[in-house]
């Protein structure tokens, strides 16, 4: 229990190399991560302002598509019922 196996030494060596040898890589990676978070927050704020400027609608309401004049919304089953 007191001794470390070769696998433990290998993992320790890799961790030490990353911490001490790859300092620039880690800080660059964290900087890229921070830029991604800032970009995400900015886009979320843009989405909220875009939905706030739209006309207020009831939740779950879907606007009907633009219809041509003279368009009738009767279905074939309605037409069939009216003919019988």
Automatic annotation (TrEMBL):
Keywords: Cell membrane, Membrane, Protein transport, Translocation, Transmembrane, Transmembrane helix, Transport. The Tat system comprises two distinct complexes: a TatABC complex, containing multiple copies of TatA, TatB and TatC subunits, and a separate TatA complex, containing only TatA subunits. Substrates initially bind to the TatABC complex, which probably triggers association of the separate TatA complex to form the active translocon. Part of the twin-arginine translocation (Tat) system that transports large folded proteins containing a characteristic twin-arginine motif in their signal peptide across membranes. TatA could form the protein-conducting channel of the Tat system. It is a single-pass membrane protein. Residues 45-84 are annotated as: Disordered. This is Sec-independent protein translocase protein TatA. InterPro entries: TatA/B/E, TatA/E. Belongs to the TatA/E family. It is found in: Cell membrane. Pfam families: TatA_B_E. The keyword RNA-binding does not apply. It comes from the Bacteria. It comes from Gluconobacter cadivus. Its main location: membrane. HAMAP family: TatA_E.
């Amino acid at each position: 229990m007191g001794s470390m196996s070769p696998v433990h030494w290998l993992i320790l060596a890799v961790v030490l190399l990353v911490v001490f040898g790859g300092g620039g890589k880690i800080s660059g990676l964290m900087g890229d991560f921070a830029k991604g978070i800032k970009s995400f927050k900015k886009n979320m704020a843009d989405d909220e302002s875009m939905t706030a400027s739209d006309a207020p609608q009831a939740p779950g309401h879907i606007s009907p598509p633009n219809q041509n004049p003279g368009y009738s919304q009767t279905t074939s089953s309605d037409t069939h019922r009216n003919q019988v």
